[in-house]
Amino acid sequence: MNRVGEYCGLCGITGFSGDSVALVAEGLLALQHRGQEAAGVLIYSDGKMKLHKRKGTVSEAMSDIPSDFFTGRIEAAIGHVRYGTYGGSGVDNAQPLMVSMAGFQIGIAHNGTLSNAGLLRDELQRQGAIFMTNTDTEVVLHLMSHNLEQTGFNIRKALEIALNRLQGAYCFLLMTPDGFFAVRDPLGFRPLNLGRFEEGGWIVASETLAFDVCGAEYMREINAGEILYIPYDTFIPESEQFNNGAHLFRNRPGLAQCIFEHVYFARPGSRIFGDSVYTTRLAMGRQLARELPVECDIVAPVPDSGMFAAIGFARELGLPFDMCFTRNHYVGRTFINPESAHRATMVMRKLQPIPEAVKGKRLCVVEDSIVRGTTSRARIRALREAGASEVHMRVSCPPHKFGCYFGIDFPEPSKLIAGNFSVQEIAEQLELDSLGYLSKDGMLSCVSAHNTYDYCTACFDGEYPVKPPEQYQKHNGYKSLI
Ligand code: SF4
Questions:
Q1: For residue 80, which of 95, 155, 188, 293 is within the disulfide window of CB 3.0 to 4.6 Å?
Q2: What residues flank ligand 1, with Cβ below 6 Å?
Q3: All domains of the chain, ordered by start, with CATH?
Q4: Tens of pLDDT along 170-209?
Q5: Does the annotation count 459 as an active-site position?
């Protein structure tokens, strides 16, 4: 793996009188960058839940939705795009999941990674639970089921008890026969947003771009630690905060929103964690230019995610911005495909240098991140072969030295180039004239959080906001701060 993958995207609609299924599919399409392995949609209509999920992209998975998904009144629809590393890549692990629980049908879709899923799964299995999937998400359904009777079969209370057992990163959309839930973990690792349709009805999605394509208006973020419940009888949202004892296992007072969503994952047209991704990326480029200016003829991005940082970098230094690579849009995002066999080939197929743009020029290439370094090395060589006289690189975040256990699929730390080599050594290995990374403080100065503790930066500094799963704690790089 040369790049990193996100663990999924969510889009759900309730109380909307139009075609909720088609809009959820459109919303998922806008979130496709968050997972391309599988997609699914679950609806509640005429007192029954119906599920459709397939492997592949949204277009592939949604091409054969049964026609009865589009008839009758739909109280709610929830959709999911999956990038699977927890559990296998089979369709059984695709989401949403739907189960029958004490006579109730329940559906769930999840973005994130539960750090203690392995421990909870072992505990539940010892008590007799039989799991149908390998996902961490199924643990939540079992925890709810175990507590349902003691809550007087109150799904909402059973959910809250289940949430109190969870650690790590999670956003959930839950569908029940009575209402629709949206939940975000108390540290707010992953983004989740609420929007509204002018004609009535609500939409919840990982990124606000889904609202734009569905014609909905952004209302607000789902708060960290919030359970938002929208009952079908009133469609008036009810919000409550839950405290899952986060103070017991986190090492700081603030949130732990994933800064890497801003650097790389989220689409520039989205707002996440209260900030525009576009504006943040421009600011990161400007800050990078102030910290590490370079004398060159052209500033060029590595498309697409380095684009806006490169624009900010060029503007700050008053340098020409140009494209040095042309991108083949038909090979897909190479890092997100879990079938690894074709990755090396796909990297070279995806971006090709433009000789007329680079010949005899001193280039500064702006990247969003360097993970293993193999992709960057191949691209820099290609620029030199195309005639560039100098190639400098600037990276719009600090060096990635540590793993992520909160929903981003980095290679293990021993495979991260910055985990093993200094910046100077990396520059030599990549055959660069110079290399520079944005500082952590500089990166955090580009977002409008109340304090820097509101962002997780663990993959850069090893300061994990919650304990990684047991099996990773001895892993090279984990600092025991808790
Ligand atoms: S470790 Fe890095 S990628 Fe993972 S949540 Fe924290 S900032 Fe995001």
A1: 95
A2: 189, 258-260, 404, 406, 408, 456-459
A3: 5-247 (3.60.20.10), 261-472 (3.40.50.2020)
A4: 999 999 999 999 999 999 999 999 999 999 999 999 999 9
A5: no
